[in-house]
Amino acid sequence: MKIFTASQIYDADKFTISKQQIKSDDLMERAATALFNWIHSRLNGAQVNIKLFCGIGNNGGDGIALARLLQEHGYSISVFVVNYSEKRSKDFLINLDRLKDRKLWPEFLDSDCSFPDINQNDIIVDAIFGIGLNRKLDDWVGNLIKHINVSNAFVLSVDIPSGLPMDSNPSDSSYVIRASHVLSFQVPKLIFFLPETGIYQNQWEVLDIGLDPEYLNSTNTEYQLIGKNEILPLYRPRLKFSHKGNYGHAVIIGGSYGKIGAVQLACSACLSVGSGLVTAYVPECGYNALQTALPEAMVLTDDEDDSITKINVPFVPSVYGIGMGMGTEEKTIKAFGTFLKNVESPLVIDADGLNILAKHPSLLKDVPKGSVLTPHPKELQRLIGEWEDDFDKLNKAKDFSVKNNCILVIKGAHSIVIHAEKGYINNTGNPGMATAGSGDVLTGMITGLISQGYSPLNAAIFGVYLHGMAGDVGVMDFGYEALKATEIINNIGKAYIELLRPPKPENVKEV
Ligand SMILES: NC(=O)C1=CN([C@@H]2O[C@H](COP(=O)(O)OP(=O)(O)OC[C@H]3O[C@@H](n4cnc5c(N)ncnc54)[C@H](OP(=O)(O)O)[C@@H]3O)[C@@H](O)[C@H]2O)[C@@H](O)CC1
Ligand SMILES: Nc1ncnc2c1ncn2[C@@H]1O[C@H](COP(=O)(O)OP(=O)(O)O)[C@@H](O)[C@H]1O
Ligand SMILES: [K+]
């Protein structure tokens, strides 16, 4: 699903209005009707107090139009206009008049007034600001938002939580609505997926308001939300007459004394995702552990017992995954540097492989083109430097990807695969995956996908999705807290099955 910027959304509006020969307030009516249908299908006329806080722009206009529809259906509503500017939008005014025609007079709030009481059992509709926010809020508006936030009432935000800009962090986090649920028009917004701006809402949902498909389909976006529809076409089916040689030979290099488990997890994930053959390259101390824990994998060892000091792989594998648990000893850094000079197969680089690159950026030029780097936030910061906010981080990551001709997987709640100017945002996974070794599993999975013939970019996008899905299937049995990296691996198979499960036909009753 494409993620549009605010200016693209305004363009989509204009395009739709002109192509469908409608008026802009018709589009607002569609938005309000979609909001109303959502609420009505859940409340079924229940007499709960609904308090609508509406700004004076089009977000406010949506709220005012919604108020009219709610009133027509007998809901108990109070409408407050947050009068933060004299510059009211045309469609806001049209809808305000329609409300007044029905003898419904909103209460106007301004800097001098006291705020209305909010009961914990009220439902708040937040239509104060939408995607048009472009400067700091006046303090009294910020204080109203605080007043709503402390009420503990259910807050339904229209389009986005009010007070949240579309392309930067809010200047004051207490001046942003904490939304229980966001009903966002037509397309998801980038701010829902970034760690610093995604915290303002519990859940989001997209409402179709009929923006013109021609514009939506033909417009390129920097970011895409990756779901099943985007992943299925990437899937490479296993062929009936294939043999293990068709699915590549992956080599996983890493480990040091006390950290052999990281390699075991990566190898096991690499096999479970479907690599034909997997060989581990570890220090001598890892030999027995690996051969015992993972009989399917082959093991090559370094001459040294505790850490990797040279990397001698006597064949050319399909792909290498390198870095997990490897340490950053001088001897290992040297071995890694020599390895990079000679390697031609694409790499998946994680953990200490990334830490070494960050400390010795001159090595970056030897990383094969199209390699995949999988940093968590701290490793990313070592690689690309400090960032001002998540938007700056994404721009710096794109620059890094272009400069070094690599694919970056920025790991997190919504991991983002960065390839040059494009970002692919993952939408699977859960907080149960914030556990030791889950990153090693991801590295093994991406390596195993490249081994089978997925391109490095597709392997990164597909791997991140499947990894999250395996975690999502895993929590069904283990809950968040008890989910361990091993359970993510054990559920890779079920994640594939879930991915390939045909959608249930609509309107068919289960017997
Ligand atoms: N296609 C769609 O998705 C559709 C979207 N629709 C809806 O339109 C919404 C966008 O509406 P919008 O452009 O009128 O902007 P909105 O957020 O209501 O702000 C109002 C104005 O406030 C101003 N302003 C900004 N910051 C400020 C500040 N700190 N303090 C004080 N004032 C400030 C600024 O005006 P300025 O003063 O800068 O001229 C701004 O224009 C969108 O979120 C969705 O709900 C639907 O109706 C139809 C289809
Ligand atoms: N809250 C979360 N929601 C979804 N996925 C998460 C969450 N926290 C962590 N993950 C995933 O778990 C993995 C953690 O990787 P990493 O920090 O490298 O772990 P480790 O170093 O222990 O292997 C990443 O793929 C990340 O996206
Ligand atoms: K809003």
UniProtKB/TrEMBL annotation:
Binding site for K(+): N59, D126, S162
Domain YjeF C-terminal: 227-499
Gene transcribed to yield this protein: nnrE
Pfam families: Carb_kinase (PF01256), YjeF_N (PF03853)
E.C. no: 4.2.1.136, 5.1.99.6
Residues annotated for AMP binding in this entry: K411, G412, A413, H414, S415, G439
UniProt: (6S)-NADPHX binding residues: 58-62, 130-136, 159, 262, 325, 376, 440
KW Disulfide bond (keyword) present: no
SUPFAM superfamilies cross-referenced by the UniProt entry: Ribokinase-like (SSF53613), YjeF N-terminal domain-like (SSF64153)
Subunit structure: Homotetramer.
Gene Ontology biological-process annotations: metabolite repair; nicotinamide nucleotide metabolic process
Reaction(s) the record says it catalyses: (6R)-NADHX = (6S)-NADHX; (6R)-NADPHX = (6S)-NADPHX; (6S)-NADHX + ADP = AMP + phosphate + NADH + H(+); (6S)-NADPHX + ADP = AMP + phosphate + NADPH + H(+)
Cofactor(s) of this protein: Mg(2+); K(+)
Family listed: Belongs to the NnrD/CARKD family. In the C-terminal section; belongs to the NnrD/CARKD family.
Annotated ranges, domain YjeF N-terminal: 9-217
Cofactor comment text: Binds 1 potassium ion per subunit.
Reported function: Catalyzes the dehydration of the S-form of NAD(P)HX at the expense of ADP, which is converted to AMP. Together with NAD(P)HX epimerase, which catalyzes the epimerization of the S- and R-forms, the enzyme allows the repair of both epimers of NAD(P)HX, a damaged form of NAD(P)H that is a result of enzymatic or heat-dependent hydration.
Family matches, as InterPro entries: Carbohydrate_kinase_pred_CS, CARKD, Nnr, Ribokinase-like, YjeF_N_dom, YjeF_N_dom_sf
GO molecular function, one term: ADP-dependent NAD(P)H-hydrate dehydratase activity
Alphabetical UniProt keywords: ATP-binding, Isomerase, Kinase, Lyase, Metal-binding, Multifunctional enzyme, NAD, NADP, Nucleotide-binding, Potassium, Transferase
Family matches, as PANTHER family: ATP-DEPENDENT (S)-NAD(P)H-HYDRATE DEHYDRATASE (PTHR12592:SF0), ATP-DEPENDENT (S)-NAD(P)H-HYDRATE DEHYDRATASE FAMILY MEMBER (PTHR12592)
Name under which the protein is recorded: Bifunctional NAD(P)H-hydrate repair enzyme
